[in-house]
Give the backbone structure.
Amino acid sequence: MELKSIPLTDILVNENDIYDEQMIEELAESLRTYGQLENATVFENGNQVKPYTLVGGHRRFKALSSLAERGEGPGELLCSVVEKPCEVVEEKMLIVHDNQQRRKDR
């Protein structure tokens, strides 16, 4: 696994992920104030236009994109780059496991 700062324009949102779009603006405010504290997860997909596909960190991606559109953010996402899944089932399992690791105790 490699850690990279990737331009938002190089990242394809994964159509297999389901995420709650609520609180994107609150997350954007937190990212503006404190920066990105957790990495997103992507894999290289071979696409020349958008060479990475998002596996985890969709809300962070949306919040940072919102900030970048307003000129208030860096336009990049700090990502862990993982191996590309061979099958859609593996990709979906990677998404599930990424979301499990994200959950925090309250």
